[in-house]
Predict the 3D structure of the following.
Amino acid sequence: MSTSAPAKAPMPDQPGPGPDSGALDRYFKISERGSSLPREIRGGFATFFAMAYIIVLNPIILGSAKDMYGNQLDNGQLVTATALTAAFTTLLMGVIGNVPIALAAGLGVNSVVALQLAPRMSWPDAMGMVVLAGFVVMLLVATGLRERVMNAVPHGLRKAIAIGIGLFIMLIGLVDSGFISRIPDAAHTTVPMQLGSNGHLTGWPVLVFILGALLTLALIVRKVPGAILISIVAMTVLGVIINAVADIPSWGLTTPTWPGNPFATPDFGLIGEVSLFGGFGKVGVLTGVLFVFTVLLSCFFDAMGTIMGISDEAKLTDGEGQMPGINKVLFIDGVAVAAGGASSASATTAFVESTAGVGEGARTGFANVVTGALFAVALFLTPVATMVPSQAATPALLAVGFLILAGSIKEIDWADYTIAIPAFVTMVMMPFTYSITNGIGMGFITFVVLRLAAGRGKEVPVPLYVVSAVFAFYYLMPALGLT
């Protein structure tokens, strides 16, 4: 469907930079970054459980759509493709990028592929366009353009992006848990959301979420190591017990039931089923280029916001807000987009749920190694990996979202309206439009317009003018008949 400033209070087992504890410590810089092996392991587990839902959700989104020939992707093959690509790209980001940013099939992008691309071409054609978008991302990184765009973002907007992501993941947690829900259009109301499923908090699943949220926050206040992971495991166990003794109509996406057969055989049938340029023959060159551009824009800025926010939250940035080695991270993200298309899992990108691991104290790529290994295990234990209900995992998003907000909001200059207003727009548009990309785009455009209106146009970096123009064109595409 991907922050800044986590919990300020140190965890009890937090070490200071100390002597090397071996090659693992030296390679991942675990002690150097003020972390420890237990914290990295806990962080890896927390991130996995917070995003394991993608193994179920991505196949549902892609598998429910048909291409122009009426073909549908096989659900079992999609589960394998999703878990395999998440494992590979997350491990790659951990071992080479050395950051605790896990990757998996991007929500939003998969909907674009399923609902916009596939109906007008074959599935291999649609996935080929995703691969091409990944190649373009890698090209932008190689030429330094992507890093320039990121470095051009003012400090206040960086913090606003982080806060927006925090609010966004809080909303994701509240919606996925069933604590709030969308009011259907048939209700003929201007109010889009409601408490619970019918305006009231009812049912055991919602109770599990509430207890999980309270437990998570209480453990964080008590500075208990592993607070998020403890809560996820405890609520999963509670969910299994409740489901066994109570008559529950629906838990939503995943029912907490111990599977009769915990093992599953991976089906790699979709790997490599790609046609790079076949889609252009179906829709024409101009439309094909616009399709690639649409995928590219979403991948580029969703990942940019997530990477900026998480790196800041994990304290991986320097005094100027830049992250050393950012080009490696950005290039791997481009590889991930292409790998997602090549496996038919749709574009793979940085996951905002990585904040759950960072909230547990993860600061290095070793947490990614743990998360990636768990995704690899999930290839064979998918029934077990998907037994964690969203009501047990989403309290982590609620808690981390608050910690991000609390740590970043004071760093925005609210007295300067040319930064305060764009920051506000960025923060609110992410959750309100359910899109990191929209929040960034509208914030950038507002920033450029207000700086020009204030006679401070020379203070706007050139890359922001270019990116804002691109976003303006993107938003005007429907009116121009280009979509």
Remarks:
- Strands lie at 103-105, 180-182, 193-195, 348-350.
- The longest strand covers residues 103-105.
